[in-house]
Amino acid sequence: MSDEEHHFDSQADAGASKTYPQQAGTIRKNGYIVIKSRPCKVVEVSTSKTGKHGHAKCHFVAIDIFNGKKLEDIVPSSHNCDVPHVNRTDYQLIDISEDGFVSLLTDNGSTKDDLKLPTDDALLTQIKEGFAEGKDLVVSVMSAMGEEQICSLKDIGPKN
């Protein structure tokens, strides 16, 4: 054994899974589900009655939380579905670079420089205009299954 001290300044989740199982029959509208390996927000759930051969089935209609595509899946209600761990974090916007990356201030005072501007045109325009006007902007970043994206914006007033 070595007598060195080891320090880990990791913000990771100790190698935990990106998803967890949940019974299909318990997933509701506005919940999350993984369809075709994509994290999605459920917009519609319909359950069929048990048929001649057993299981009731859940029909999920969901929207991909990162690219907005509509996905559907049909699962027996007694089976497990994967549900993504979805986190939402607020960061203060510091800078926007010419190559489309943003510089964000984290809670511990360091910067996060690995996020691109969102692809949603309305949000992109709001961020660029607000930043050009010198406003203090806070962006919400949604992360799930190893992906991150800016999903909303708050104006906390003009810079002093």
From TrEMBL:
Gene3D superfamilies: 2.30.30.30, Nucleic acid-binding proteins. Residues 1-10 have a biased composition (Basic and acidic residues). InterPro entries: IF5A-like, IF5A-like_N, IF5A_C, NA-bd_OB-fold, Rib_uL2_dom2, Trans_elong_IF5A_hypusine_site, Translation_prot_SH3-like_sf. Pfam families: eIF-5a, IF5A-like_N. Residues 85-154 form the Translation initiation factor 5A C-terminal domain. Residues 1-21 are annotated as: Disordered. PROSITE patterns: IF5A_HYPUSINE (PS00302). GO terms for molecular function: ribosome binding; RNA binding; translation elongation factor activity; translation initiation factor activity. Keywords: Hypusine, Initiation factor, Protein biosynthesis. GO terms for biological process: positive regulation of translational elongation; positive regulation of translational termination. eIF-5A seems to be the only eukaryotic protein to have a hypusine residue which is a post-translational modification of a lysine by the addition of a butylamino group. Translation factor that promotes translation elongation and termination, particularly upon ribosome stalling at specific amino acid sequence contexts. Binds between the exit (E) and peptidyl (P) site of the ribosome and promotes rescue of stalled ribosome: specifically required for efficient translation of polyproline-containing peptides as well as other motifs that stall the ribosome. Acts as ribosome quality control (RQC) cofactor by joining the RQC complex to facilitate peptidyl transfer during CAT tailing step. Belongs to the eIF-5A family. This is Eukaryotic translation initiation factor 5A.
